[in-house]
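Example S7 (structure tokens).
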């Protein structure tokens, strides 16, 4: 039994499907602060098995203790966290409380219960503005906002924990830019309010819900002036987590892995790939730079390939097509709700 925190969120839901497909039993814990309960039905529809589910915050220590006692998980995958950079600058205490406090509560309970295998959702944000590319796992780390700092601090806590007790098995996974959706079109990213990230915003523009996409910056020292990122299909990312769970069976200590494709795609290239692969038009305009963006960020994915035996296989066209299928599903669902008079969730 794998305990998946935040298992109804964008990445956690895909990881839950990959775990179920690989034969693991899954217990999802999620407080529904940025997800909805019907994701559970869709995970079941895809995987053919329903994960166990508990709606709760990790900060509820009594319930957390009860869950470990009743279910005896063998490992924990920890996705539950807030993740919006701008919001983290407005409400740093909420970010530190949830992202660090939640992780501390979880690790403390694991220690008491004797559960020592932990997969952590970190982020390429910990590399700050890299001096050279591609980014290797041993590059210096820094943070420029509370969200990034919360990831950095948890990484440091994990390092200290392993130093205190070498029987811990920790895979620290640093995600690059997860996009795409499950190929069924039933799972994907569903941000509340105006999306901050490129792909969800782009999808709403293509769907006609927003007038146009602002491409933030055209004067970066990159191939076409727009920022370059390592966009990775969320199902590839999810499969990386299954590889990490298998890796932890054989390895003690803490190891950090970049989960990226290992290739940089510019914002403009992604827009063009989206139009080409979906046939949808994407109205867009060049806008000023967004504060805090780094010009280029892509992974050296060799360590994950060599040690996890995992690499991303889905290309940018598949990322766009799957994401668009998901957007169409959301739109159909919204239409049928409007017709039936049911409130939107
Ligand atoms: N962008 C636009 N228009 C938009 C939204 C984004 O041009 O409407 C651009 C951004 O300026 C950036 C690129 O698209 O150049 C990607 O932006 P995202 O917000 O999608 O992603 P980021 O690279 O800023 O951040 C992501 C995650 C963070 C994580 C970081 C790690 O959202 O959580 O990658 O590098 F920390």
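Recovered sequence:
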């Amino acid at each position: 039994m794998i305990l998946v925190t935040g298992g109804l969120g964008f990445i956690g839901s895909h990881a839950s499907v990959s775990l179920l497909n690989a034969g693991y039993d899954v217990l999802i814990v999620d407080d529904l602060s940025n997800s909805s309960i019907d994701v559970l039905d869709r995970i079941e529809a895809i995987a053919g098995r329903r994960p166990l589910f508990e709606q709760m915050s990790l900060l509820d220590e009594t319930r957390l203790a009860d869950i470990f006692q009743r279910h005896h998980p063998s490992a924990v995958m920890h996705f539950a966290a807030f993740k919006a950079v701008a919001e983290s600058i407005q409400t740093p205490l909420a970010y530190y409380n949830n992202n660090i406090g939640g992780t501390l509560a979880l690790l403390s309970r694991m220690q008491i219960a004797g559960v020592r295998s932990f997969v952590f959702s970190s982020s390429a944000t910990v590399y700050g503005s890299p001096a050279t590319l591609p980014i290797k796992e041993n590059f210096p780390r820094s943070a420029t906002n509370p969200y990034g700092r919360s990831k950095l601090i948890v990484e440091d806590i994990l390092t200290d924990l392993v130093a205190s007790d070498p029987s811990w098995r920790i895979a620290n996974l640093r995600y690059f830019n997860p996009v795409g959706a499950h190929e069924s079109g039933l799972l994907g990213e569903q941000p509340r309010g105006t999306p901050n990230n490129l792909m969800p915003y782009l999808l709403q523009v293509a769907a006609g819900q927003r007038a146009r996409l602002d491409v933030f910056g055209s004067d970066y020292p990159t191939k076409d002036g727009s920022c370059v990122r390592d966009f990775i299909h969320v199902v590839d990312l999810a499969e990386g987590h299954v590889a990490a769970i298998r890796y932890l069976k054989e390895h003690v200590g803490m190891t950090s892995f970049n989960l990226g494709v290992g290739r940089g795609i510019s914002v403009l290239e992604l827009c063009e790939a989206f139009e080409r692969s979906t046939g949808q038009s994407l109205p867009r305009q060049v806008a000023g730079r967004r504060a805090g963006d780094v010009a280029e960020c892509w992974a050296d994915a060799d360590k994950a390939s060599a040690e996890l035996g995992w690499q991303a296989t889905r290309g940018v066209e598949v990322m766009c097509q799957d994401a668009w299928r998901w957007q169409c599903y959301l739109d159909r669902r919204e239409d049928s709700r409007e017709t039936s008079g049911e409130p939107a969730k």
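Notes on this example. Residues 83, 123-125, 177, 196-198, 201, 213-216, 227, 229, 267, 290, 293, 297 surround UFG (CB under 6 Å).
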